[in-house]
Design brief:
By secondary structure, this protein is mainly alpha-helical. The protein has 10 helices and no strands.
Length: 270
């Protein structure tokens, strides 16, 4: 109970620290919302996607980009945020000082993951409100769609958190963390169907992107927010939600194994 109480208090502390950092708030919390706004405005005169020859039907570009931005938000909040944050805490000695306190490792991670989950929930609510009221994007009405959204979102956030913790071991110093983590996250967004139509990418690039979880997170979210007619545009011709869960589950296990063997309060070369 003491460990859980310490973890709960760490969640509040981590949230306060997170929202006091302007760069973190911009590049992880607000970035998907800003990108959705940019794409929605830029393509506002381009007509609807999937429209009939007479111009009727289809969906707006704003609606098309919603699932990708939701998936990108999960990746940014988990992988980028924790990868940079924990590497920075190693570099400035924060973790070394925490190692000398009674704070359990579980409580520390509970604070980090709880912060990411809470901020991700706030982020996706704001994103959907902007999409609905600023760009008139219709939200799903079927309960089954929202159930799919819930498990893909929860699974995606937890997987992203674990991978972010594992990735934090890669930068050699806290100062180099952004230079190491951000390019990886940015590249994944471009090849995973977040900014570009995944089915139009070269086959070899689709195969590479399919190795990583972001492609499947975005695919799961497309099954929630896009009409059923868009399912045929997927490379396999189906949403494949079972495969979405399987790939994210495998990456969750891989991330946990990497965390077990790579995370330390103090770097080996310190």
């Amino acid at each position: 109970m003491r460990t859980l109480a310490l973890g709960a208090s760490r969640i509040g502390y981590e949230l306060r620290v997170y929202f006091r950092q302007g760069d973190s708030v911009f590049f992880t919390f607000l970035f998907p919302i800003l990108m959705l706004s940019v794409f929605a405005v830029a393509f506002s005169t381009s007509g609807n996607l999937g429209a009939a020859p007479d111009g009727t039907g289809g969906i707006s570009f704003a609606a098309y980009y919603v699932p990708g931005m939701v998936a990108a938000g999960m990746l940014l909040s988990g992988v980028q945020n924790l990868g940079v944050d924990i590497a920075g805490e190693k570099g400035d000695g924060t973790l070394k000082r925490l190692a000398g306190t009674p704070l359990p490792v579980f409580s520390y991670f509970m604070g980090k993951i709880g912060m990411v989950f809470a901020s991700s929930v706030m982020q996706v609510i704001l994103l959907l409100l902007v999409a609905r009221f600023a760009f008139d994007v219709a939200m799903p009405t079927e309960p089954a769609k929202w159930l799919t959204f819930a498990w893909v979102f929860l699974f995606g956030v937890i997987t992203s958190c674990v991978l972010g913790i594992a990735l934090s071991a890669l930068p050699r110093t806290g100062k180099s963390a952004t230079a190491v983590v951000i390019p990886i996250v940015l590249l994944l967004q471009f090849i995973s169907g977040v900014y570009l139509n995944f089915s139009q990418l070269p086959g070899w690039l689709q195969n590479i992107a399919s190795i990583f979880p972001l492609k499947w997170m975005a695919q799961g979210m497309r099954s929630v927010f896009l009409p059923a007619s868009f399912e045929a545009a997927e490379p396999s011709g189906a949403w494949n939600l079972g495969l979405v869960a399987l790939v994210m589950g495998l990456w969750l296990v891989v991330g946990m194994v990497l965390c077990r063997f790579t995370f330390r309060w103090i770097r080996r070369d310190s």
